[in-house]
Amino acid sequence: MLWRITSEGYDFALALNKPSVLSVIKEKFQKEGLSAVIDISKKIVIKQANKLLEEQ
User: Fold this and answer.
1) How many distinct structural domains can be found in the chain?
2) Which of 1, 41, 43, 52 has the smallest C-beta neighbourhood within 10 Å, fewest atoms?
3) Taking the CB of residue 8, how many other CB atoms lie within 10 A of it?
4) Rounded CA separation 47/53 (Å)
């Protein structure tokens, strides 16, 4: 079965490769729980994507 992800999902996966992003997510997960981690992760990914777009 072939898996497909949206561009947001792809950006999220790319952001997870960065050690600083992953450490923030881990810290927040321990303190806040899963729903907060998802919200924070989305914000981080959007910020990273915007930064990449501005560089081009």
Assistant:
1) 1
2) 1
3) 12
4) 10
